[in-house]
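DEPOSITED CHAIN:
***
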Amino acid sequence: MSLPEALRDDVRTLGSLLGQVLREQAGHMLYERVEQVRALSKRARAGDEKAAESLSNVLAELPVGEALPVARAFSLFLMLTNIAETHHRLRTNEEPSSSPAAHEGPGPGDCSATFGALVRRGVAPEQLHATVSQLRIELVLTAHPTQVLRRSLLQRYNDIAAILERRDAGVETNLEESLLRELTIIWDTDEVIRNKPTPAVEAKGGLTVLEQAVWHALPVWLRRVDGALRQHTGRGLPLEAAPVRFGSWMGGDRDGNPNVTAKTTLQVHRLGRWMAADLFYKEVDVLRGELSMRSCNAELRARVGDAREPYRALLRDVRDRLHATRERMQALLDGEAPNVEPFYQDERELWDVLMLCYRSLGDVGQEVVARGRLLDLIRRLRCFGLTMVRLDIRQDSDRHAEALDEITRYLGLPPYLEQSESARQKFLLAELSSKRPLIAEGMPLSDDAREVVDTFKMARQIGPDGLGAYIISMARQPSDVLAVELLQKAVGNPCPQRVVPLFETIDDLERAGAVMRQLFQMPWYKAHINGQQEIMVGYSDSAKDGGRLTANWWLYKAQEEVVRVCQENHVHPTLFHGRGGTVARGGGPTHLAIQSQPPGSIDGSLRVTEQGEMIQAKFADPRIAARTLETYVAATVDATLAPPRAPEDSWRVRIEELSRVACDSYRAIVRETPRFVEYFRHATPEQELGALNIGSRPARRKGGGGIESLRAIPWIFAWTQNRLNLPSWLGVGQCIDHAIAAGHRKELEQMYAEWPFFRATIDLIEMVVAKADPTCSARYDRRLVPADLQGLGESLRKELDNTIKRILEVAGHSRLLETYPQGRLSLEVRNPYIDPINLLQIELLRRLRQAGDDEPAAEVWEAFVMTVNGIAAGMRNTG
């Protein structure tokens, strides 16, 4: 199999132009060096051992001044390959994050095909229409320390994708000149992030994606959904429907990030308000120019009097108020006194005016006009509101408990931290029902406790339109939830945020159902939530705690249990999935992930995090953004109306055993193997990654410590760089060994064939082991790991080999990615370009570590950063 002709042509064109840029901008000698390395790498991948040795020697001897541009050249080629592949997927209508598994039925992400299939399977058109109309999907943008590319370069890459699109459409006359211009600019643009980004800068990056891509994609996508509904149910999407909305943790996630304060969150909220006012101002200004008609209904006439052009008269005030809103937010961002002109505080005010225009146009027979730009504006308002995103606030449960401890000690009450769980619950419920204030003005508090209280006061100031959920990290007991409810009450917030416990570790997931049951049995709490409860499950820390397979199963069981508890207590649950970009953090194709959830866990509502580099991958291009949104809707509707089958009892027994053995095997290596942490820090660039300016949040929750203190993202990022990908597969081979030895091979094959959850788990692990490269990992060991630790690396690579064999047995495949040949081919094309970057990184790490306490040359660090970017581009994910 070879690359499709159109894709091969794009890659060839981009590669040829890159070579021209290298010759013109960096000189013929560098071009020849890059070509030498490329030829040796290809021969080495084909099995030529002499070429492999020569490649290693050439790269090890490169002076750092030459290593930097060589690494950059290969990194840039991989980025261009990514652009070409993404563009080709859009050509062929594939899901943005292509699946490693074959799907039956309609293609993932196609609403029309999905709706049609559901109706043919017996779903009543009325039920389908009601489900789509009432969908509540929220995509929550998060910033994590894995975005290794500068936004200025990302924009250039988007421009290249746009040129390829125009090329296909036949409207680009100077294609090669346009691409050459972009590549020349990219080559001479600094790729290294010089300063650590602030939370506000991260938030601006997320908002910019919404502004430049999703804002434009949304009406196009909703018209497709509307058309699919009309085709299969006879009725379109209601005006008030908002199937997808956006939330954000950028500027609100203070868990372990001292850089996020109450002032930061308020600043980010105002930035979103500014952007929304600016976008709506521009749209209303254009709409006002369109609506020049004289006819209107009596309701609108009563608002504008005898104006000759009633719509323009009405929208003049709207435009002016949006301008005043934008100017007010700008003044507040600049620390200046805001204007006193009327501005929009509540999106309902703008909604009422736009709907008045819509009704009027319909009443006078001009509905065709109403369903143009005005309809698009109404739908944007329902999605984005006047804040673009609704900010979640996230904080660790310990911080709330510590603040309450200071408050109780000051008031002469029993110290909160010294109380049992039952005593804490009693105290919290009593205070929630009390009329006396808990926190007096001027109460002396430590800086940490004051920041907690200031955050709740800031939330009161922003109000409900700008805020989403309050997420409690490391939620373990009912008191963790009640504590946040009390602190909201204590600052006098009349519209408190919904409080969402986040269950992260294996132990916390096991307790999730019991915690929620206790809360629902409290009359105060049951009345307070009004029949709605959101629960968040964390993929990252659970996987770091017990391995991917074990975490998957415990996440599945936790969801089943909390849904069961909610149903027993007549509460509608919304599951919030804290997924990352990699398989080890719950990542993978959207459709596959949603379809593999427990039956009943997706009942028309879903929240999901979209993290770091995945925001760019899924939303930075309007075409990709529209496809991503459609995939979410199609998959959620499908999972709601045709949920996957529940596992057989015997399968539950088997997966429990697999989970136990996998967890024991994983922990035996990660937690119990002597000097494992030492090996990890030698064999991967984990310590060096922590020094890079690739995120506002520290790599560790606390200083020092071992794996437990390390955040899940850099833990996975480091293993991705040396291409062992250990967190995604460790323990899987041994648990399958155990099951096969006990005579359960046929049962595993049946589970793979008939149970979507198990199939998705195995398929995604298959994808990640296909990306792993034990030969590359061994090179890191030989050059960077002390001799007495190298045996540990060798045992891990043997376990990887065993895992691959066992995965193939269960899936019935003769080779990795057998059902996803395009993915396998993509890896084969990329590997000769990733290999030199890995070899350069090994040499640069050796030089950095040899420097010891001495300051290494800035060029060495810069070249190292370039290799991090290149490997991330080649692997197509980071953390």
Notes: The beta strands are 136-142, 244-248, 390-396, 467-473, 498-503, 532-538, 572-578, 605-611. The first helix runs from residue 5 to 26. The longest strand covers residues 136-142.
